[in-house]
Design a protein that fits this description.
Blueprint: H1 2-5, H2 18-42, H3 44-51, H4 55-102, H5 109-123, H6 126-137, H7 140-172, H8 174-195, H9 207-213, H10 226-229, H11 233-264, H12 272-298, H13 303-316, H14 330-358, H15 361-392, H16 397-417
InterPro entries: MFS, MFS_dom, MFS_Na/Anion_cotransporter, MFS_trans_sf, Sugar_P_transporter
Subcellular location: Membrane
Organism: Sphingoaurantiacus capsulatus
């Protein structure tokens, strides 16, 4: 892994590591993003008992988040292309931090839906901003690895939430828990505005590292209308991939605590270790999946072959998760789900790089926005289906069967739409 991060000049000298500082900031933002996102699922048993929610009610709250997430992706895809990652990311973080804190004042299901709607609006800017920053700060051969690292923040957030949420609830109550976790993002915003600049504006960036970052062929300037992007098969390859796999990740994120509570008798104080184990495994998958394709490209593989090989390996690791609802042993179920979430993150790290692989930088935000919107729409359908299925049958089996098959179907769709991953010459 070190060979990917320790880039050298043609003369053998090191080019510098300032770009990895930017990657670290993206990682921490994504960590906070997922803490705020997952609080509702970790506290579901507590809130369910206090407010008398049914599964359909909870699904409606998740649906509100997914709906605004879809709308927000559409908006922030434009925002990042117009005002850039520095201010666009700050705006998104400001919205989601405020919404997370708003949740502490909720008194009924309508309040929760409103708070989650605003949260989804802000949180939708995280990945368009992160991908935009990676496209600006990393050459193509390092992008999947960089995306894998900052995407691993999702797993760290998912690890920390079931650990800190019970402590905060016991010490201060669930309302204070939302206030405290929501407030973390404002610390990050201050650091981001202080540190982040484009490479050419960064004073401590060496000439060697700037040259390395800009080693790909230069893009033509200008803005790209979404109408032009929607006519491209490459856009739909990314969007269809997101439509098929994003619902699986959202399902696991929002329903895993409930799955362990109902299938294995765990509660707020005991489902932390299984969730932590799952997301630690996921972190390995996120970094390894991004590293693998980057390492293969370093070895001379084409982007097409490297990305699709990494995605195929990940997709083949997911089908066993369909067995999880029928397994009585908790830790066997944890291992199967952990393998699937690791594979998701590895697959996702490579999928996230496709817009920057296939499109000029001026179009990346737009493609990410389109794909994120389509992915969130898929998540909306999954949320409603899950709530209806659980209220009707009480069974998690159909959702896990869908999860087990989604990634191979997604890779097939991507390959059919883009048999060869070659950059779009004009948009």
């Amino acid at each position: 892994m070190a060979s990917v991060t320790e880039a050298t000049t043609p003369e053998g000298g090191r080019v510098g590591r300032v770009r990895w500082t930017i990657c670290a900031l993206l990682f921490f933002a994504t960590t906070i993003n997922y803490i705020d996102r997952q609080m509702i699922s970790v506290l579901k048993p507590t809130l369910e008992a206090e407010f008398g929610w049914s599964e359909t009610t909870y699904a409606d709250i998740v649906f509100a988040f997914q709906l605004s997430y879809a709308i927000g992706y559409f908006i922030f895809g434009h925002v990042m292309d117009r005002i850039g990652a520095r201010y666009g990311y700050s705006l998104a973080a400001l919205i989601w931090g405020t919404a997370a804190m708003m949740t502490s004042a909720a008194r009924d299901v309508g309040h929760f839906m409103l708070a989650r709607f605003v949260l989804g609006l802000g949180e939708s800017g995280n990945f368009p901003a992160g991908i935009k920053a990676v496209a600006e700060w990393f050459p193509k051969k390092e992008r999947a690895f960089a995306v894998g690292i900052f995407n691993a923040g999702a797993n760290i957030g998912a690890i920390l939430t079931p650990l800190i949420a019970p402590l905060l609830v016991v010490a201060f109550g669930w309302r204070a828990a939302f206030l405290i976790t929501g407030g973390l993002v404002f610390v990050w915003i201050a650091i981001w505005l202080l540190v982040y600049r484009s490479p050419r504006e960064k004073k401590n960036l060496s000439a060697a590292e700037l040259a390395y970052i800009e080693s790909d062929p230069a893009d033509t300037p200008g803005k790209v209308p979404w109408s032009s992007l929607l006519r491209r098969r490459q856009t739909w390859a990314y969007a269809v991939g997101k439509f098929l796999i994003d619902p699986i990740w959202f399902f696991l994120l929002f329903w895993l605590p409930d799955f362990f509570a109902k299938q294995h008798g765990l509660d707020l104080m005991t489902f932390g270790p299984p969730l932590v184990a799952i997301y630690i495994i996921s972190d390995v998958g996120s970094v390894a999946g991004g590293w693998l394709s980057s390492a293969l490209i370093k070895r001379g593989w084409t982007i097409n072959r490297a990305r699709k090989t990494a995605m195929l390996i990940c997709a083949l690791c997911v089908p066993p998760v369909a067995l999880a609802p029928g397994i009585d042993n908790l830790w066997t179920a944890v291992l199967l789900i952990g393998l699937a979430t690791a594979a998701h993150q590895g697959f996702s790290a490579n999928l996230y790089t496709l817009p920057s692989d296939l499109f000029p930088r001026k179009a990346v935000g737009g493609v990410i926005g389109i794909g994120g919107t389509i992915g969130a729409i898929g998540g909306m359908f999954m949320a409603k289906f899950t709530g209806w299925m659980l209220d009707t049958t009480g069974s998690y089996v159909p959702m896990f069967i869908i999860a087990g098959s989604a990634y191979l179907v997604a890779l097939l769709a991507i390959h059919l739409l883009v048999p060869r991953m070659e950059p779009v010459e004009e948009v």
